[in-house]
Amino acid sequence: MSTFTLDSATSRATPSPQPGKRLTVPAIRARKVAKDEGFATAEPVVMLTAYTMRMAQLLDPHCDMLLVGDSLGQVIYGLPSTIPVTLDMMCAHGAAVVRGSWHALVGVDMPFGSYEGSPETAFNSAARIMKDTGCAAVKLEGGEAMAETIAFLTHRGIPVIGHVGLTPQAVNVLGGYGARGRDSAEADKILADARAVADAGAFCIVVEGVLEGIASDIAKAVAPPVIGIGASAECDGQVLVTEDMLGLFERTPRFVKRYDDLANRVGAAAAAFASEVRDRSFPTADQTYRPKGS
After folding, report:
1. What are 208-246's pLDDT values in tens digits?
2. Tally of domains within the chain
3. Which of 46, 53, 104, 107 could anchor a disulfide with 137, C-beta 3.0 to 4.6 Å?
């Protein structure tokens, strides 16, 4: 187990983070072992995305894993896809999330173009991510084509989260974000991809946007925990983009359950502030500085 203590003396963050033992790669992998052996303690893995220090602080007590996803391209930067996301972006946001957490294992996505060229290219990118952020793992997309790279990284001390099914970085090849595996050939290919990634050494695998039966079959077929998103309740864990789950966007993907409606709540708070500024009811004496005794 590794420990991490956060100094918040110069931070707005409250309450102060607590020092503690962060979950490790073997601890996450053991969840599947416990499930396969029938232990009642085999809890599903809880994963959410985080891109900022403060969001990491809020999510960390409730999550086993925090994923700094390249979805930050759309969520944070308003980009049309994950394709333009850079290594610099991932490192900056990954470091912020590590600083804001102490319990969850933090994984960082490898952006498009940073790992596909060769295993050596992938190692250089992954090593930079881990050095710059302090994260425990990297995530990369792809199945059989990436198996050699996953093995290369794993054998050199870099834990890897696999990602098969709907792979957003391949949106231009796939032609969109629709669910995958609707024909038998594609379903067989997704299952083969998952097996290849598992055999290569990935310690867990994200399965995204596939027909439910495919995800269930993968969860039964591979040793690492399978983390579903738009997949199946039979997966070994679940992940969502936090901002989708919180209702911060008007459009909600089919596989997302909204647990709040923060967009309307933020809008209402901003409207109340604007109204009080315009009618000069803010600030009051409680929000201004005056000489002592006056």
Report:
1. 999 999 999 999 999 999 999 999 999 999 999 999 999
2. 1
3. 107
